Every structure is written in C-alpha cells, then in structure tokens.
Amino acid sequence: VWLAKVSKSHRIPKPPLGYWAKVEHGHRAAKRRLPDPEWNPTIHIGTYAGLPSLTDQSVYEAVQVLIDRLSEPDLSIAAPNKTDGLHELFRDSQDSGQASEALLSDLLGRDFRANRPPWQLDKDTVLDLRERAFRVLNAFVYFAEPYGFLFGIETTQYGTKYMTASIFGESVSFHIEREGRKLRLRCFGLPFTSRSTWSDGKRHYVESYFADFACALAYSAAIQKCERASKGDR
Asked: Contact 43/184 with Cβ under 8 angstroms?
C-alpha cells in the first residue's frame, strides 16, 4: 500500500494487469511510459475580452470589479508536476491525503476512459490526460476561490456529476472534457452568442484561460441573478 501511494504521488504508473505473469513466462509485455519529471510550466493568465450588457446595473458593476481584479498584469499560476495541495473538495473521506477515485471517475466521465471517442488513443495517453484534467480542476478551484467563488459538486437527475461555482448568490455548472489529446473547459448557462468553451491550443495550455473562464462563470451567474430579479418584479 505504501509503495502504491508513493508511486501515485510521483505519477509513476502501475504495471497493467497480467504484466508480471507475462514476464515470468518469457512473454513480451508492454511498459507504460514514465512521466516527464521536468514538466512544470508557468502558466500566464490571459484577460477577459469584455463584458456584455446586463440589465441590473449593480450586478454589472460587481462583475466589472471582478473582471478588473482578474485582469491584473502578470497574473500567473504554476502547473505542478504532481498533485500537491489537494483541495478538500476532492479528498477521499477515508484518506484525506489522496483524491477520491470514485469521485474523479464520475466528474471526468467517459471522455477519460481508454479507447473512447473522440479519436482512439492508447491507454497510457488517456490516463495521462485524466491525471492532468484533475490537476486542472484542482488548480482552478485554488485559483478562483480568492476572488469570491465557492465550489461544490452537483449530481443531476441522471446521476451525472458536475462542478459548480457559486458567486453573487447564484450557482453555475461547469465541466472539463477531452477532445483528442486536448483538454477543454465548458461553462453552462451562457447565451448562444457568448463563448462557453476554452481549450488547449498549439501554444497555450487551458490553464492560460483561467481568468477568462472565471469571468465567464461570473457572467453566467450574473445573468441568472438578473433573470431572477426580473421575474420577481413581475
């Protein structure tokens, strides 16, 4: 158990089922790749392009203040090469130092299971993407909390789990997805005319858009608040 925990903390993959039996009988057994120990980029955060109009002026001003804070120059975040500083939201109730595997499987969904579309990828690549997707969620929660966001996990009537971000008294759902070898953050509840997804690019990780994504969550919450206030006035 101890060796398994140490290996997991350093992102060292376990041999697949039947590996040692194949080795013992002289058969060829595929080895899983080791992670790059030097992978520790600094992510420079982009800024929000602009705030569409909102009907409630006080809500508009609150969102604008948040956007100004998230648009400070030289805003950056380190992408750790292992899961340090695990947020309590993801901790296993039986072992607070480890992530809950069952919860992560529900949150990340089918996109992060081996040999699932879009695009067929080998198991090692999918597992690496799954590990990174969790690090993105963990880092985003730590990034956004100082700006007034409260995070939780919501279960739909179909049993699907989504992350939720609460601000201005409203809750917004969001999700992380896999598109081939790229990760994509999706915000729900935005108008069709507004951007709702941010993905890895050729020159940028999805973490580069944390500020942009946080602003989109705030804007979605602001829309809900304005709609609720409008219904209350009728």
From this structure: no
187 DSSP β-pair partners: 174
Could you tell me which residues come within 8 angstroms of residue 6 by beta carbon, excluding any fewer than 6 positions away?
A: none
Q: Which pLDDT tens digit goes with each residue over 102-137?
A: 777 777 766 666 555 545 667 777 778 888 888 888
**CB within 8 Å of 73: residues ≥ 6 apart:** none
* Per-residue pLDDT tens over the stretch 223-234: 888 888 777 654
Beta bridge partners of 179: 182
Give backbone dihedrals phi and psi of 54, rounded to 5 degrees, phi first. -130, 145
**Rounded-to-integer distance, Cα 151 and Cα 96, Å:** 18
The sign of the dihedral angle between the CA atoms of 175, 179, 183, 186 is negative
Distance (Å, whole) CA 164 – CA 18: 39
Instruction: Please enumerate in sequence order all residues whose Cβ is within 8 A of that of 94, keeping only pairs 6 or more positions apart, or say none.
Output: none
- For residue 149, give the DSSP letter: -
3-state SS, residue 177: strand
Q: Is the pTM of this model over 0.85?
A: no
Q: Under DSSP, is residue 32 helix (H, G, I), strand (E, B) or coil?
A: coil
